[in-house]
Write a structure and sequence with these properties.
One of its GO terms (molecular function) is nicotinate phosphoribosyltransferase activity. Belongs to the NAPRTase family. Its cofactor is Mg(2+); Mn(2+). Helix content is 34%, strand content 18%. By secondary structure, it is an alpha/beta fold. The protein has two domains: 270 residues, nicotinate phosphoribosyltransferase (Alpha-Beta Barrel), CATH 3.20.140.10; 166 residues, Alpha-Beta Barrel (TIM Barrel). A hairpin with a 5-residue loop joins strand 18 and strand 19. The longest helix has 25 residues.
Length: 544
């Protein structure tokens, strides 16, 4: 898909193409094109259709999901156009197809398509349409696979990130470290973006930082530490003070002096004797390179007998010249115990050596962390300030896919339904509107769906809401606030106003605010209370 310059122009607005250039109309299942041809052959391709994109079950054993991927869908719509080369390939894939079908594909775009969606970053629930797509059935059918591809993983990983944020708590920093373990380049880029959306604070992924403006974090690996043999390898030993007024000609010697002071400190002398000098050389070298952001990985050899004392010696030396070290990273061992011991060591240094604020050094933990391990650390008690999380986060290790579906619910103003012996797979027919009803405490009570022409629920009005598939389940609700969920994000070439896509930071803020506004029992990790999704019919809307 070749966007015009940087994208599609709508009035004065230019919408860039999808982040991944492989997201083209050919990113599709073959049967989408076979159906498009069959629609065209039958003369049905221009019939007005309505499709709902939704999911059937919340992921990770929870009772909520974070909707993500909408921006990429809109970018795809704005730049939807098959090239001649792509059309030739489609023709090869459909032996016997008529040449006139290629002419149809050549003129195909999304100028007659409308998309209504819940705002990206919203907390969402099963069965409620995340997106309602309206337009000629021939072109809308070709949107199914790309939309599902763009929404499924995005929403899954954003939800995973939100769950990690919930268990870690608001006060901890969460760092996404998953690029090396993600499923390919797009998996890495997408995970970085949607983990940030779901509440993470930063990423190690430089490309994602450039593309999306996500804050970057990173220090060094064990390889850097083990690459040094001694301080003799440090060629440039000069450090200029933070204010630029003084210069230390031999920073290495200054570090060694501080290490001896720590060794002879009454409260610290029994913890260690001789530290690993190659590790000290690595820390010193790294501090000379990054004196303003020095953070050391302290578990290459022995955390308490070498890593922590060596770090403290370098940090104290930096402090003499106006620099404040950031802290340490633990990547192995008993993280709860080691973080507490490290904190005690820092506090002792602050007290014994009269260095204000030294006890508040940041302790970062990594090492294959996930929801369960962070929850266990919380129960054990720890002094970790930041968690670096990779594999289990970006691969969504505990659940492979969200399972969004894209179902026809209306064509030519006639409701359509997909039946199944499995009631969870029965689709909800016709064009719908969705609302979120709030109670007097400010929490959401229930999401309801109505027919498009049904009168909307009103604040203070007693409503009878019904379960989608169990007639005996019903309840009266008196909402204190009513929010309509679906908003128009694409109206093709029409002149009517549509929602503007907000920047990623605003979507992230929305996500965090929505999660904080949910009732705690819906959010808890174990045995969460299911959130209700019901109907509010006032006529024969559901008499199918």
């Amino acid at each position: 898909m070749e966007p015009k310059e940087n994208g599609s122009e709508l009035g004065q607005k230019i919408i860039d193409g999808p982040t991944n250039p492989m997201v083209t109309p050919l990113l599709n299942d073959l049967y989408q094109f076979t159906m498009a041809y069959a629609y065209w052959k039958a003369g049905k391709h221009n019939e007005r259709s309505v499709f709902d994109l939704y999911f059937r079950k919340n992921p990770f054993g929870g009772e909520y999901t974070v909707f993500a991927g909408l921006e990429e869908c809109v970018k795809f719509l704005a730049n939807f156009k098959l090239t001649d080369e792509e059309i030739d390939f489609v023709q090869e894939c459909l032996p016997g197809s008529e040449e006139a079908f290629c002419d149809y594909l050549r003129g195909l775009d999304c100028s007659d398509v409308e998309v209504y969606a819940i705002p990206e970053g919203s907390v969402v629930f099963p069965k409620v349409p995340l997106m309602r797509v309206e337009g000629p059935v021939g072109v809308v059918q070709l949107l199914e696979t790309p939309f599902l591809n763009l929404v499924n993983f995005a929403s899954l990983v954003a939800t995973n990130a939100a769950r990690h944020r919930f268990v870690a708590g608001k006060s901890k920093s969460l760092l996404e470290f998953g690029a090396r373990r993600a499923q390919g380049p797009d998996g890495a880029i997408s995970a970085s973006k949607y983990c940030y959306l779901g509440g993470f604070d930063a990423t190690s992924n430089v490309a994602a930082g450039k593309l999306f403006g996500i804050p970057l974090r990173g220090t060094h690996s064990h390889a850097y530490v083990s690459s040094f043999m001694s301080t003799d390898e440090i060629v440039d030993k000069v450090l200029r003070s933070a204010d630029g007024k003084t210069t230390c000609e031999d920073f290495v010697s200054h570090v060694q002096t501080w290490l001896k002071k720590i060794q002879y400190s009454p409260s610290l002398s029994g913890i260690f004797s001789e530290t690993n000098q190659s590790e000290l050389a690595a820390f010193t070298s790294y501090a000379l390179a990054f004196p303003k952001t020095f953070l050391a990985l302290v578990d290459t050899y022995d955390v308490m007998k070498s890593g922590i004392p060596n770090f403290c010696a370098v940090a104290l030396a930096l402090n003499d010249f106006g620099y404040k070290a950031l802290g340490i990273r633990l990547d192995s061992g008993d993280l709860a115990y080691l973080s507490r011991e490290a904190r005690n060591f820092f506090c002792t240094v602050e007290r014994e050596l009269k260095v204000p604020g030294f006890g508040k050094m940041v302790v970062t933990a990594s090492n294959d962390l996930n929801e369960e391990t962070i929850d266990a650390l919380n129960k054990q008690g720890h002094e970790v300030d930041a968690f670096g999380i990779g594999t289990y986060l970006v691969t969504c290790y505990s659940q492979a896919a969200l399972g969004c579906v894209f179902k026809l619910v209306e064509i030519n103003n006639q409701p359509r339904i997909k039946l199944s012996e499995d009631v969870t797979k029965v689709s909800i027919p016709c064009k719908k509107r969705s609302y979120r009803l709030y109670g007097k405490e400010g929490y959401p009570l229930v999401d309801i769906m109505t027919g498009e022409n049904e009168p909307p629920p009103k604040v203070g009005e007693r409503l009878l809401c019904r379960h989608p598939f169990n007639e005996s389940k019903r309840a009266y609700v008196v909402p204190q606030r009513v929010e309509e969920l679906l908003k128009c994000y694409w109206r093709g070439s029409a002149d009517e106003a549509r929602e503007v896509l907000p920047p990623l930071k605003e979507i992230r803020d929305r996500c965090i605010k929505q999660l904080e506004n949910m009732r705690p029992d819906h959010m808890r990790r174990l045995n969460p209370t299911p959130y209700k999704v019901w109907f509010y019919p006032t006529n024969m809307f559901f008499s199918f």
